[in-house]
Amino acid sequence: MAGVVILFGCASTGRTVRGSGLRSRSLPAVTIHVQRSFRYLGRFSFALGSDFEGERYVFADAEGQSLRRLLIVQFERVRTSSPEVYRYSFEKAERIGSLSFIQNTFAFRGAQNIAAQPRDEGEMTNNFLISRGFRNPDLWLAARFVTLGAADRKSEMIVFYMEGNDQYHLSDLYAGDEPTAAWRRIKPEVVTRARAAFDVE
Q1: Could you check whether the bond before residue 28 is cis, i.e. omega within 30 degrees of 0?
Q2: Residue 129: left if φ>0, alpha if ψ -120 to 50, beta else—which one?
Q3: What is the CATH number of the domain that holds 159?
Q4: How much is the pLDDT for 2?
Q5: Burial 18-34 (b: 16+ CB within 10 A, else e)
């Protein structure tokens, strides 16, 4: 998955992007190799209330300014002043590289406008993309892969794979909060494409 050798780094996190590879020196120590059709757009930091903070690294597969797919790697941690921990169960986890991940899928509408007061890292990502002239699809289909950054459960890494879809409306995929038969049918296909979009070393 070699790409153009361009080096981006952040000294405060010890993480760098070189071509199609994102390397983290800690929490967890890992290298994520991203499919070459994705281009690295940059990173941003975020805070969630008084307990959590982190960074998102954003890769995009776009046609011009129209986004087709996104691959987002999120590193999040509990602030030292907080007693919180990440309470995921990994009983049904799968191994990707040397790490254990739990996975889920979901669908949501693509944002078309900048949020004046973003509430979370999702809205911050929309602002990040839209401010750079990108256009979201009407509907995103997403797969989410979560692992812990360390045994103390004070950090996590999440890989989000998102693909635009113009064949369905959100109402085709959910009846209230429940997934429809159509969504249950296509979920495995989304996960298969997600796993082809990145490797963990």
Answers
A1: yes
A2: alpha
A3: 3.40.1410
A4: 30
A5: bbbbbbbeebbebebbb
Flag whether 25 is in a domain: no
Alpha carbons 86 and 17: distance in angstroms, whole number = 26
Report the distance separating Cα 133 and Cα 116, nearest Å. 16
Neighbouring C-alpha atoms within 13 Å toward the C-beta of 16: 10
For 88-113, what is the mean pLDDT? 96
User: What total number of domains does the chain contain?
Assistant: 1
Q: What is the pLDDT averaged over residues 130-137?
A: 97
Residue 31 lies in a domain: no
Q: How many residues does the chain have?
A: 201
Beta bridge partners of 146: 102, 158
One-letter-per-residue 3-state SS of 20-84? CEEEECCCCCEEEEECCCCEEEEEEEEEECCCEEEEEEEEEEEECCEEEEEEEEEEEEECCCCCC
Q: Are 57 and 72 in contact (CB under 8 A)?
A: yes
Give the Å distances, CA to CA, from 12 to 9, 43, 72, 92, 150: 9, 13, 19, 34, 18
Give residue 10's pLDDT. Answer: 46
Nearest to 162 by CA among 71, 78, 94, 51: 71
Flag whether 49 is in a domain.
Answer: yes
Q: The domain containing residue 143 runs over which residues?
A: 37-199
